[in-house]
């Protein structure tokens, strides 16, 4: 087992013991088990999965961030983390539509990048919700 801290920008999402963790990374899924070597990786919007000592598996839709593993302690910092049951799929679809519209507007590079991030987060939220509740 190892200690896991998942922190969203607005609140702690989970802190406690963990048997395994899989995060969505820039080059695919990245897994962590107890005794993992020290590592840092970038997290992209996707599905984060972790297994508790009780055997229960938990899932979260996460946005971009980073993960740091060191000395049997793993820190996950993300902009947002939501359990599938907490996702409002209609709101997520509206956010995706708004982000798509913003991408069509001729705006600055920074605004375009923000719209891309908003779209990726919204699409991920819809996908995770549908995966677990459809």
Summarize the structure.
The chain is built from 2 helices and 10 strands; from the N terminus they run ββββββββββαα.
Low-confidence stretches: none
Number of domains: 2
Name of the level-1 CATH class of the largest domain: Mainly Beta
The average pLDDT is 92
Number of helices: 2
Please identify, by name, the CATH architecture of the largest domain.
Sandwich
Distance between the termini: 33 Å
Radius of gyration: 16 Å
Task: Encode the helix/strand succession as letters.
Answer: EEEEEEEEEEHH
Biggest sheet overview: 5 strands, mixed
Fraction of helical residues: 25-40%
Extended strand count = 10
Proportion of residues in β-strands: 35-45%
- Based on Cα principal axes, name the global outline: globular
Query: Structural class, from helix and strand content?
Result: alpha+beta
Spatial order of strands in the largest sheet: 2-1-9-8-5
Instruction: Give the CATH topology of the largest domain.
Output: ATP Synthase, domain 1
CATH superfamily of the largest domain: F0F1 ATP synthase delta/epsilon subunit, N-terminal
Structure notes:
With about 130 residues, the protein is α+β, with helices and mostly antiparallel strands. It has two domains: about 1-80, Sandwich (ATP Synthase, domain 1); about 85-134, Single alpha-helices involved in coiled-coils or other helix-helix interfaces (Up-down Bundle), CATH 1.20.5. It has helices spanning about 90-105, 110-134, and strands spanning about 1-10, 10-20, 20-25, 30-35, 40-45, 45-50, 55-60, 65-70, 75-80, 80. The strands form two sheets. It has a five-stranded mixed sheet with strand order 2-1-9-8-5, with no helix packed on it. A hairpin with a 2-residue loop joins β8 (about 65-70) and β9 (about 75-80). α1 (about 90-105) runs antiparallel to α2 (about 110-134).
């Amino acid at each position: 087992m190892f200690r896991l801290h998942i922190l969203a920008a607005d609140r702690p999402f989970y802190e406690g013991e963990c048997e395994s963790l899989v995060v969505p990374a820039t080059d695919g899924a990245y897994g962590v088990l107890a005794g993992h070597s020290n590592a840092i990786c970038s997290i992209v919007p996707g599905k984060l999965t972790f297994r508790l000592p009780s055997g229960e598996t938990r899932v979260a839709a996460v946005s971009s961030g980073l993960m740091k593993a060191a000395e049997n302690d793993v820190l996950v910092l993300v902009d947002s983390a939501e359990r599938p049951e907490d996702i409002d799929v209609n709101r997520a679809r509206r956010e995706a539509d708004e982000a798509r519209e913003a991408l069509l507007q001729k705006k600055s590079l920074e605004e375009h990048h923000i719209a891309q991030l908003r779209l990726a987060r919204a699409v991920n939220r819809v996908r995770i919700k549908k995966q677990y509740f459809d």
